[in-house]
Amino acid sequence: MILIEVIVLLAVATAGLLAGRWLRLPPIVAYLLAGLLAGPGGFGLVSPSEATENLAEIGVALLLFGVGIEFSLDRIRRILMRMLTTGLLQVGVTIALATAIFHRFDYDWPSAVFAGFVLSLSSTAIVFKIYGQEGTLDAPQGQAAAAILLFQDLALVPMMLLIPVLAGPPSNAAVAATGALIKAAVAVGGLILLARTLLPKGLALVARAGIPEIFPIISLVIAFGTALGASALGLSLPIGAFLAGLALSGSVYAHQVFAEILPLRDAFVAIFFTSIGMLFEPAIVAAAPMLMAGMIAVVAIKGALIGAIVGTLWRSRRLAIVSGLGLAQIGEFSLVLAQQGLDAGIIDASFSQALLGAAILTMGATPFLMRAGTRLSRIDSASVESTATRQMRQHVVMVGYGTTGKAVARVLRETGIAFCGVDLNADSVAEARRENLPIQFGDATRRAVLENLGVPSARAAVVAVSDPVATRLIVGLIRQMNGDLRLIVRARYVSEIIELERLGADEAIPSEFETSIEIFARLLAHLGVPRHLIRVQESIIRVGHYQALRGIGLSTEFMEETRRIIAGGILETAQVIEGSEACGKTIRELEFRKRTGATVLNVVRDENPLPEVTPDTQLEAGDQLVLYGPHEAIDAAFRIIEPTVYKGSGYAAEGPEEGGKP
Question: What H or E segment, with its residue span, contains residue 573?
């Protein structure tokens, strides 16, 4: 039963992922090892079947769909020349070397060329994930890796299209290859043109419908519908899914579609790589160990070649070391390609098994090789981080582009603070785009959307959405992803504050009463109440969760404490000014407490509190005093720490304007 197989495969993948996290292995390697141990080559808990093959094909299609969306045609244009130069050199030379080597191993030309195909590809998923975690995707080593990896991913398309040609009779291989590529180019161009014309318009209609449940459904329809359309045009299902993602990559709705697909994709990708691991049979590799050793040797040559290319074009020995060691592995798409080559009869089981073994070893070694490369080249990731990356690590994330979001966004833009935002209202997003504001369409309750906004490296986040359930989900996700950022949330009701703070909000501001507080504060100011007393009143209202404004009676004890705070004394800070009576004298000499009635709670000198304040503490110019006492006492204290020139000016008689600060 297919459901049982799905459950078993997912359970095996989960166990492998947990063990991999403990061993610090990339997820793909963990899935492969889990499948190996659970499959016929290990403990024999599960066996490959037609159902698992079909599920794996869905996983490949979803994987390539996600790659297409993340590709971004704009991103390709920015690095086009370097991508073509470095990628073409690396892929072309690796294929040529591998073909020559494997032909000497008595492989026929089609099989040798195919060996070059699979060995020329590196792991986009592993390398990008590691650089993303380090925050160095925009650093020179990240840019160099992106140029090569993106070309490799694009090269996968013609490689897959050439599989039927390599599997056919060699007599007319050149003619067949040319015909296949021309036919494929027409199909690819037509499909992308059609998709880019129709899909964004269809998604705009779906977004404006305002029904969130439609997006997961339409996302699957787009991914698999376009894949099936490509299949009808003679392309493979995975290539069709890749083209669908590529067509969507420039759309404002692309990241939301990706977020809807992501959980399903991750599940099916886990099934795919776990099922691939199940196919590995160590006994076959043990019978011909030189084949696997030869593949690892070619991969090592590929790493050296990448290092030479990057070192030459970037003119940096350090980048050459990092890039060579970082990209010297067999990629996940090599396994996808190998599976299709095995089905087409281009390679045999022994080649497939050797490739699996080499892939597991080289992928597993990648994190360690990348760390070794960093040490060898003495590159400090933080020091080579680009300005753009540093800015993105200091940006503000805005969730919701309603009235509050618009106001915050415009202020951030005017003050030059880097920010980006997201909203589910298509019209609001379109309005923001017209103003050149970085607001994208998306559902912030999806982790992938928040990751795309850079939440893990943000300095602050503002959540201002009208749905209280969504607000709680978003607050919880943001706090899980970044425990250090300042998280400010607009709540609708006071009753939501405690729950939002429990989920991780630093400040929850209820819209229903903040306007009332502002009116109240302005009224008191007009009536002549000192500003520090107004601030005390505001704080009391907020600390009491707005009970005074809600008509809920406060306890007698709380009211008495409030009166004591207002009537009995205040906290204030003041600076000792050069030329004042206090400058250069001790607190005892000044008889501070006796003369003013104020208490010096602490002294801050050079931005650091003194470890102990005693009557013999000598005050210096620039010291910040933390004072407590009645209003009259604070005024008297200011007369001591102010310069004498102020005392005869009429200023001291009037009293300090803002809470005693000169």
Answer: strand 570-575
